[in-house]
Amino acid sequence: MKKLIIIIFILLFHGLLICQENSDIEKQLSPMNKVEMAAFKDTINTNDGKLFKILVIGNSITNHGISETIGWTHESGMAASNIRNDYVHIILKKTTDLMPERKVSMRIAGGASFERNFDTFNYKKMDSLKGYKPDVIIFQLGENVSFDSIKTPILFEQKYIKLINYVKANNKPIVVCTTPFFPSLEKNKVINNVALKTNSFIADLSHLVLLEKENYSKNELDYPGDKSKWKSGGIGIHPGDYGMENIALQIMVIIKAALEL
Fold it and tell me: Are 163 and 201 in contact (CB under 8 A)?
């Protein structure tokens, strides 16, 4: 009986630690994605050949504009040391290397508004992305999602499924959903259900920082950027160059296999 009580206490204590960690992460993330940005931006390689299109819908890990108030001084996925080293541009380069005979384009769009307002989100905001008709769609969402009595996990699952189906429209792209980089068992379960119900692939990012804390930029030993400029602790819990490379790797494994290259 005493052993059982000890086990229960340990489980409850561990649960409290996870809840506290998630709460701390949410507080640190609050200054992020508050910069007004265009609905999307396009980039393309210099190859000739048939066009291959990738659409990425994500949050500050995908792209964050300059924000002097938090000490973020360049535009890229936070906290890559430069735009070439964020995961989306690494994917663009790796896809170009896989397809030297194809012209590869990438459309990068913000999804933080959906994360924070999934209960009332207007899907027509995504019409310019639906019309892009991509071959691959990467949904990097979940980090900025919080649940309450209205914004429940079940509702998030329903709205996320609707988002994927709305952007896919009548096309049949390869769809990749990432689990949150900031680990959350609850969100992982929801996103796995979403992937299952939309025939999407899952790229697990949550294990990266659980296995190796250097995937956080604040812990990256050889980070080439200047951490002293950062005024918000939220920047440091984003992936640095090392973390971005590992995120790109998780996604590229899926894309390459799905394309059977």
Answer: no
